Amino acid sequence: MLQRIAGKTETYLAGVVVALSVVLFLLNPKFLTAENLFDVLRNNSFLGIVALGELVVLISGGIDVSFTAIATVAQYVMGVIITRYMVESVFLAFLIPIPIGIALGAFNAFLVNRTRVHPVIITISNLNVFYGLLMVISKGKWIYGFPAPFRDFARLKVLTLVSEKGVDYGLSIFTVVWFLIAFATWVILKYLPIGRKVYALGGNSEAARRAGFNIFRIQLFVYCYIGLLAGLAGFVHAELNQMIQPNAIVGRELDVLAAAILGGASVFGGAGSPLGVVLGVLFIAFIKNGLILVRASAYWHQVIMGLIIVLAATLSAYQQNLEQKRRGRT
Amino acid sequence: MKRLVVFFLLLGLLVWTSVAFAAEPYEIAVVVKIAGIPWFNRMAEGVEQAAKELGVNAYLTGPATADPAPQVQMVEDLVTRGVDAVCVVPNDAKALVPVFNKARERGIVVITHESPFETEAIDWDVETIDSVKYGQQPIDAIVEELKEMGELDKYTPENPAGFVMLVGSLTVPLHNYWADVALEYAKEKYPFLKELTSRLPTAESVEDSRAAVLDLITTYGDQLKAVIGWGSLGPIGAAQAVAEKGMEDEIIVVGSAIPSTVAPYLATGAVDWAQLWDPKDAGYAMVYIAKQILDGVEIKEGMEIPGLGPIKVEGKVISVNQIKIMPDAETAESLGF
C-alpha cells in the first residue's frame, strides 16, 4: 500500500519533469543539449546527495535541519588538514569528512532519543551549536588553494565528450556518486531489515515500539546516515567550489527539504522513495536552470522558487489526507 | 607590621585617586554586521590602530549572525551603557533609526559605514570609496580588455558586446546602486555595450554564481562577452564557470573581490580585473572621525585623515577615495588581506 502511494507520486512527478523539460526545450532548444544537462546534474549533486539523507530521516518520522552545519564542519576540518599538510591523495581527503559526519549524526540521534524533544528543536539547536563552534574556532576564515590533485579531481568525468569549441564536457564523477547513493539508499530501504524498520517506525511509532524494535538503533541509523551523506556532500561541495567558506551551505535547509517533500517524502513519516527524491531535485534544478535559459528576470526567480516550496508543502498535506483516509478505512 | 599596613593603605589611596582623576579616554564602539569573519577582522586592525594612535578606547564588536535584530539590540545596549560614540556597519539601516535617534538624544555620536543612502538619523556616514567611480570603473576595465583583445572595433550598437551583472541580492543598496551607475555609464559612454539580462542575485555565493554563469554561457553563447560581479564572490564563481568551459580568453570577468582570494584567478586570467577597498582603512576612518567630533573639531571638505588623504563632504556623507585596483595577481597579493 505504501509502495503504491509512493509509486503514484513518482509517476506523477516524472510526468511533471518530462513536461517541464519539453516546455523549456520549446522555449530554448539548448536546454536539452547533453552539455547543459551534464552541467545541471553536476551542479546539483550536492543538493541531490543530502536530499537522499533527509529522505531517510523523514521516512523514520524524524527531521534533520542540522545537516548543513554538519556538512560545513566536515568540509572545513578536511580543508584545514589538506591545505596545512598538503595532502596529495584525494582518497585520504575524502575519508576525513565522513567519520565527522557520522559522529555528529550520532550526537543528534542520542539527543533525539534521550530527550524526546521534537527532532526539529534538537537539530535546529545543534545546527547552531555545530556552526557556532566552527565560527568561533575558525573565525570564519575561508580556505582555498587546495593541492593540485584535489583540483584535478573536480574535473574528473566518467564519460567525456568534446564540444564544438574543443572543450571537454561530460558526466561528472559527482553525478555518478549521487546516483550510486540513490541506488544504495533504495537497496537499503527496500531489501535490508533496517530499511523496513525505518518505514515501520515512521508509519506508526507506537506499533514499532510494541513490536519490540530497538527504536534507538533505528534513530541512530537514520541520523548517522544523513550525517554520513552530509560529510560526503561537504566533500563534493568543496570540490565543486574549490573553496570552503563556513557560511556557504548553512541556510540552504529549505531547498533540500523542498526537494525531498516534492519527491513524495512526508513530514509525518512513513512515506517516500529515493527515485522520488532524485526527481524532486531534478525538478528544482530544471526550474532554476530554465529560468535563466528562458531569460526570465531575476525578480521572478524568488517568486517561482517560493511557489514551488508552497506546492511541495501542499502536496505533502494532500498526501497526509490520503494517508488518514486509508487508515480510517482499515 | 603596622607600618606595612599603613604603606599599603596609602598606596591604595594613591592608586584610587589617580584612577579617579585621570582624564577618561573616549569610548568608541564599532558595531559590524557580523563579528569574527575575515573582512571585519581586518577592519578590527584599523580600529585598534586608531585606538593606539589617538589615545581613545575604541573596539570592534558585532552580532554572531548578520541579522538586523541582534545588531539593533547590541547598539541599544551600548547606548544604555553610555559610550561616547557608536560607529555602525548596518545590516539594515532602517531598522537602526529608532536606536540612533535615542543615541543622539543622549549626545552620543552616531557614524555609519557602507550606508550612504540612509542618513536621516545619523551624524555622519563614512565611505572609503567614491561610489560613483566604483560603479563606473569595471565598465572602463571591460572596454580596456576589449581593446587589448583587439575586438573593440568589432562591436557596434547594432552588434553589441553583451555583459551581465551579479549582485549580492536585489535588496543590497550599494550593490544595486553600483549596478545602476554602471548601466547608465555604459549607456552614455559606450553604446556598443549591452546588458543581456537583468542583474542576477547570486554574488554572495561561489556556487550560485558559478551555476548562473554556466547557464548564461549556454543561453547567450558568443553574445556573452563580460561578467561584472558586485559582491566579492561573484567574480570567483564566474571565473570557475569560465575556466570550466575553457573560455578564459573569450569572456571578461571583472568586479569586487578580496585580494588574496582573487589572486590565483587573476594569475590564470579567469578574472581579468578586480577592485575593492581595505576594511582596515574604513575601521580607522570611522574612529578618527568620531574622535574629531568628540573633540569639537568641525568636519569640513578637505580635512585630512592620516594616511587616507583629504575628505570630500556631500550632505552627511564623508568620503575618501581609496579604491584598491587589482589588474594582476602581484598587485592583489601586495595588498596583504
Automatic annotation (TrEMBL), chain A:
InterPro entries named in the record: ABC_transp_permease
The membrane topology term of the UniProt record is: Multi-pass membrane protein
- Which keywords does the record carry? Cell inner membrane, Cell membrane, Membrane, Transmembrane, Transmembrane helix, Transport
Which residue ranges does UniProt annotate as crossing the membrane? 12-29, 49-78, 90-111, 169-189, 215-236, 256-287, 299-318
Note the superkingdom of the native organism. Answer: Bacteria
Give compartment(s): Cell membrane
Pfam families, per the entry? BPD_transp_2
Query: Which segment of the chain is annotated as a signal peptide?
Result: none
Q: What is its main location?
A: membrane
What is the recorded name of this protein?
Answer: ABC transporter permease
UniProtKB/TrEMBL annotation, chain B:
Q: Where in the cell is it found?
A: Cell envelope
Which Gene3D superfamilies has this protein been placed in?
Answer: 3.40.50.2300
Q: Where is the Periplasmic binding protein domain?
A: 28-296
The source's domain of life comes to: Bacteria
Enumerate the SUPFAM superfamilies for this protein. Answer: Periplasmic binding protein-like I (SSF53822)
**InterPro entries to which the protein is assigned, alphabetical:** Bact_Solute-Bind_Prot2 (IPR050555), Peripla_BP_I (IPR028082), SBP_2_dom (IPR025997)
Q: What is its main location?
A: other
- Which controlled-vocabulary keywords does the entry list? Signal
Q: Signal sequence: where?
A: 1-22
Q: Record's family?
A: Belongs to the bacterial solute-binding protein 2 family.
The molecule here is called Substrate-binding domain-containing protein
